[in-house]
Amino acid sequence: MSFYVIFMILTFVSTIIGLWKLFEKAGEKGWKVLIPFYNLYVWLKIIKKPLWWFIFLIIPFINVFVILLMIVEIVKCFKKYGMGAQALGAIFPFIYLPYLGFSKKETYLHPDKRPVIKKTAVREWADAIIFAVIAATIIRTFLLEAYTIPTSSMEKSLLIGDFLFVSKISYGPRVPITPLSFPFAHHTLPLTSSTKSYLNWIQLPYYRFPGFAKIKNCDVVVFNYPDGDTTTVELQSNESYYAMIRRMGRDEVWRQYHVIARPVDKRENFIKRCIGIPGDKLQIIDQQVYINGNILPTPENAEFYYRVRTKGSTFPKRTFEKYDITEGVKPPQPDEQTQPPPFTFYYNFEDSTYQLVLTKEIAEKLKSSPNVASIDKIMYPKGIGDQRLFPFDSTFKWNIDNYGPIIIPAAGQTIPISMSNIPIYQRIIQVYEGNEFKIKDNKIFINGKEANSYTFKMNYYWMMGDNRHNSADSRFWGFVPEDHIVGKAVFVWLSLDPNRGWFSGKIRFNKMFRLIN
Predict the structure, then answer these.
(1) How far is CA 451 from the centre of its chain?
(2) Which 3-state string (H, E, C) describes 242-281?
(3) pLDDT value at position 337?
(4) In this structure, which of 333, 363, 464, 483 has its CB flanked by the most CB atoms within 10 Å?
């Protein structure tokens, strides 16, 4: 039996026992606490609150907040008017309610007979702030959270400067793994660059409440960055710590940077499109994604690199604005690897070319420009491997346009493992699922025993950006475990162009209030 099941049973039983005794002290039969819904009616009567509170008691996760209010009110009925006692009852009801119920010196006082407690201005403000923080925290943790798009990896589907809502309840809200944290901060305290916003004193095991749906192919998903378990204060998630280790060596990275570790729920939030779900066989052939041998439709707004040859002159600024071209790349240099780094609107005067990031639709429109001689999509050919790509092994001749095949593991699925495929699954076995892993004499040992197969404990997912040639995604760091899933991106409520001022079209009115496909 899992820790959560045992903990929830004990806390539930203890709270019910406490309420039983409190009901009796209030003049009601204790057994009434055992009858669903009727117990809430009796409880509301004891604390003298209106029956319309029932409306909020049947709304998932909002009812958690209402129950906390009811606990505070019943604590007041036992003459506990201080903020400390009320907070103790709300945070530890499974301890404090039984204490009130079994203590002979604690007696019930009907709400009509309670003395009028005149609150100071400080207490009024404190109550209001605590109320707002608790309500917002419950909504943010279990229902809905606001995010913003910081990078171009999902362009043109999601733009830099888009503000969106992410539904936690769609796939089921995840219980906070690191519950002791500063409200509304992710991993760093506001106005600081490196001060942690959380404490590691309590680390809860992964648990997810049931949701309305399961992740499907092509869903846009927010998740915690898998490579972000270790990172640097200076670069954060802008560059993978593990990629730096492979490029520079561990000693050099630790010499130059301040290296830190983060728990799962405090790793950077990423947003990508889920291309593969548990059990899928994924392969990319000439930029086309195949799932289980079938073509997966490319998103309508997906972007790729294009080589645009002009008739001898550069584009004026208005051309980029007219065709909504926001990104370019620098051609690869002799000492660079397969994928060139991002570079804005670099023009090669030797052959009169740009390398631009375009959608298929924009590329077709750009052909009509009088200064364009030709437009060709750039594609990295089969058989040319990129060692920056997962699983970082020279035997896999994969690149961003020709990748796989690769099996995405499902919970309970057993696969054969050998020296030929272990680079794909080693991080899952060793890091995500916490096994002791060792290779000796070309043999694989898991928890001290030689193994030629492995059964996965969790589901895994494969994420890719719609900006297919400029996205740090699963091709660069591998699988996303289910315990890293945050929620489903559902709605853009505001869109700001970071390159424009407030009086020159900063608000993209045509991109606001749109559902995410």
Answers:
(1) 33
(2) HHHHHHHCHHHHHHHCCEEECCHHHCCEEEEEEEECCCCE
(3) 43
(4) 464
Model confidence at 335, in pLDDT bands (50, 70, 90)?
Answer: very low
pLDDT tens across 405-420, in order? Answer: 999 999 999 999 999 9
Strand duo 372-377 + 303-310: pairing: antiparallel
Cβ within 8 Å of residue 385, ≥6 positions away: 394, 396, 397, 398, 399
Query: What is the spatial distance between Cα 262 and Cα 175, in angstroms, rounded to a whole number?
Result: 17
Angle, helices 38-46/3-25, rounded to nearest 10 degrees: 50
Q: What is the sign, positive or negative, of the torsion defined by CA atoms of 177, 182, 184, 186?
A: negative
Q: What is the pTM of this model?
A: 0.83
Can you tell me which residue has the tokens 């399961």? Answer: 214
In sequence order, what are the beta bridge partners of 273? 220, 464
Q: How far apart are CA 483 and CA 332, in angstroms?
A: 37
What CA–CA distances, in Å, run from 181 to 45, 200, 262?
35, 9, 13
Pick the most confident of 11-20, 365-374, 478-487: 478-487
Q: How far apart are the first and last CA of the chain?
A: 39
Q: Which residue has the tokens 């109550």?
A: 127
Q: What angle do CA 196, 200, 202 make, to 5 degrees?
A: 140
pLDDT of residue 395: 93
Q: Is 35 exposed, middle or buried (0-12, 13-18, 19+ CB in 10 A)?
A: exposed
pLDDT tens-place string over residues 41-90: 999 999 999 888 888 888 776 788 888 889 989 999 999 888 888 888 88
Q: Which two tokens stand for residue 367?
A: 């052909």
Q: Could you state, in order of their start, the residue ranges of all structural domains in the chain?
A: 3-142, 414-455
| pLDDT exceeds cutoff 90 at 238 | no
Alpha-helix residue ranges (DSSP H) falling in 26-81: 38-46, 53-57, 62-76
Q: pLDDT tens-digit profile of 457-472?
A: 999 999 999 999 989 9
